[in-house]
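Incident review: delayed structure delivery

Summary: a single-chain prediction request sat in the queue longer than the usual turnaround. Root cause was a stuck worker, restarted by the on-call engineer. No data loss occurred. The affected request and its eventual output are reproduced below so the record is complete for anyone auditing the incident later.

Affected input:
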Amino acid sequence: MIVHLIDGTYELFRQFYGRRHATKGKDEPLGAVVGVLHSVLEMIEKGATHVGVATDHVIESFRNGLWPDYKTGEGVERALLAQFHPLEEALAAMGVVVWPMVELEADDALASAAHLAAGDDRVERVCIWTPDKDLAQCVRGERVVQVDRRSQKIRTAAGVRDKFGVEPPLIPDFLALVGDAQDGYPGIPGIGAVTAARLLNQYGGIEGFPAKVLGDNRERALLFKNLATLRTDAALFRNVDELEWRGPTAAFAAFVDRLGDARLLERGLKAPVA
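Output delivered after worker restart:
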């Protein structure tokens, strides 16, 4: 089987701004939710049988306590934030497994789900649907891969090496050194992507760097590595069979009425059940 793990928060952002462009700035109250549901149904129509969606129930996480400038919900548009929780409810009503994260982030859920799924010998491949560079650390050979929905490109371990210059397990070290503006930590002054890759290929992880390489920035680099390291121990499911889509629940029809898109119910009822 192939397990599909979807970054629901990323998909919600993508649908929100994509639809805003299409509607010339007029936001539909639950338009982004409708878009995400259609995209998930399209995957199922194309053969996806085992699907899980991770969401940020709140944007803040335990990382905000480690670094005061870590990303928060500040600046996220209210019209978009208002669709976070309805998305989770809608996915559950459609019969899709959803993991709303609070202390951890959606990325941690994807990493944990990938770890759990890859441990099952029946699983041929785990596809993590997000372009987020953080998730590159979860890629393993050609068995656990990243998929960018926009470009339809699949990133294997070889693809991670080509893009970042390091093996997937060193991605947290790489991000710690170069920084991640989206997540809110700056990296180490004077170290860019080329230098970071060279150092990591020479010495391995940051812990193995000679003291003179980072000097007074060593502890900060290790802190940033901790921020960049995704947790893989969230107990999201016991068996990948729990991710099998078995069709919409009885609550889906009522939720479709709330969303105002009758095509969702039609597609949901016609979509193939494994």
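Verification: The two ends are 11 Å apart (CA to CA).
Action items: add queue-age alerting; document worker restart procedure.
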